[in-house]
C-alpha cells in the first residue's frame, strides 16, 4: 500500500460522497481517485461514458488522465487507485500499464452485479484475473460504500421492467 489504511478509508469515503453527488446529477455510480506515495491526491474521476460517448471514459481512466495532466506521464506511477466500484477489465489493464501499485475498491464486482452493473464477463474474456493488480486488489469497506449504487437504482427503477432488463441496459 502506498498510504496508510486510515487515510485511504477517509479518501474512499470522500470518493463515495463525490459518487453520490454524481449519481444525483444523472451519472452512474463509479468514481476513481489516485493517491501517490508522496501524499498527492488526484482530482476524482467520474464515469463520463454516457455524457461524452467515449467508451473509455470510465472513472478510473478519467482519474488517470487527470493525474497525467497534473503530474506528467510518470505521475500515476506507484500510486494507489481507489475506486467506488471494483475496476472492470479495461480499467485494471490501463492502471497496470500506467504503473499503478495497488487498487482498493469500496464495492466488489459481485455486489456491483447484484446492483445491476454486471461487467464480470470481461474478466474472463481477457484473463484479467491473472493480472497482478486484479489478484492483489483489496476491498476497502466504507460505511456508505453501497449508497451510490442503491441511490442509482432508486432513481432509475421505473426505467426498467425487470432487474435483468436493468443489467443489460446499464
TrEMBL record:
Pfam families: dCMP_cyt_deam_1. It comes from the Bacteria. Coiled coil: none annotated. Residues 6-117 form the CMP/dCMP-type deaminase domain. InterPro entries: CMP_dCMP_dom, Cytidine_deaminase-like. GO terms for molecular function: catalytic activity. This is Nucleoside deaminase. It comes from Streptomyces spongiae.
Amino acid at each position: 500500500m502506498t498510504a496508510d489504511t486510515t487515510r485511504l478509508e477517509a479518501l474512499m469515503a470522500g470518493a463515495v460522497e463525490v459518487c453520490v453527488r454524481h449519481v444525483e446529477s444523472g451519472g452512474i455510480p463509479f468514481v476513481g481517485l489516485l493517491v501517490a506515495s508522496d501524499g498527492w491526491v488526484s482530482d476524482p474521476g467520474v464515469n463520463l461514458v454516457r455524457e461524452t460517448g467515449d467508451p473509455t471514459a470510465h472513472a478510473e481512466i478519467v482519474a488517470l488522465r487527470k493525474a497525467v495532466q497534473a503530474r506528467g506521464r510518470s505521475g500515476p506511477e506507484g500510486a494507489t487507485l481507489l475506486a467506488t466500484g471494483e475496476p472492470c477489465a479495461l480499467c485494471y489493464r490501463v492502471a497496470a500499464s500506467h504503473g499503478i501499485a495497488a487498487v482498493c475498491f469500496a464495492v466488489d464486482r459481485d455486489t456491483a452485479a447484484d446492483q445491476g452493473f454486471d461487467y464480470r464477463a470481461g474478466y474472463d474474456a481477457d484473463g484479467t484475473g491473472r493480472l497482478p493488480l486484479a489478484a492483489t486488489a483489496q476491498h476497502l469497506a466504507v460505511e456508505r460504500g453501497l449508497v451510490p449504487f442503491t441511490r442509482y437504482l432508486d432513481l432509475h427503477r421505473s426505467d426498467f421492467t425487470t432487474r435483468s432488463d436493468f443489467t443489460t441496459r446499464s
